[in-house]
Amino acid sequence: MTMQTVKPLFYAFGLLLMLVSCHQTIVYKKQFDIPNQVWTYQDSLQFEWTIQDTQTAYNLELELGHDQNVPYSNVYVLCHTIYPDKTEFTQPVSLDILDKHGRSNGQCSGRICKCIIPLQTQAHFPIQGNYSLIFTQYSRTDSFPGLHYLALKINPDQQKK
Questions:
Q1: Of 39, 77, 87, 148, which sits most exposed with the smallest number of CB within 10 A?
Q2: What are the tens digits of pLDDT across the range 117-148?
């Protein structure tokens, strides 16, 4: 190989290395589609994942797809966390999908908007094993129209300490 042949390969390898190092590792990602775009009290959404590394901090993000003309600015949910030792923790959470002017807090394409809602940043999972996060619709009405899907993404926190 001549130097002229090796040089482009060296640059291509360097570019590939940069792209790979910037890629964010996803520990878990799952999406549930909401049947008929109406989330009811009966339709709980259960996310389950396994954690091996208890030393790493993680970021949990919820992605919510909704109609541009969704009738409410937020959706209340009960968030049930189940730890590997079967300890349970439940708390109500408001998922704000519209701002005070009635516009989506996310990006819209066509009639569907995508909101990214940070659930927790720099979270630590204290025990190795299987975790569950169950979302139950908890708004004032038993049916919440205009929701297309709910997705959970967990990735290691990239912030330098």
A1: 87
A2: 999 999 999 999 999 999 999 999 999 999 99
DSSP 129: E
Pairing of strands 88-96, 38-40: unpaired
**Average predicted confidence (pLDDT) for the chain:** 88
Instruction: Output the six-digit token pair for 79.
Output: 């968030």
Class of domain 26-156: mainly beta
How far does Cα 80 stand from its chain's mean position? Answer: 16
Query: What CA–CA distance (Å, rounded) separates 57 from 78?
Result: 24
- The token pair at 10 is 């060296």
| Residue among 155, 44, 131, 139 nearest 96 (CA) | 139
Chain centroid to Cα 107, Å, comes to 15
Quote the CA–CA distance of 67 and 146 in Å, as a whole number. Answer: 5
Taking the whole predicted model, whether its pTM rises above 0.85 is answered as no
Alpha-carbon separation of residue 142 from 7, 76, 147 (angstroms): 64, 11, 13
Nearest Cα neighbor of 147 from 120, 105, 114 is 114
* 146: its two tokens: 């205009």
Domain boundaries, the chain: 26-156
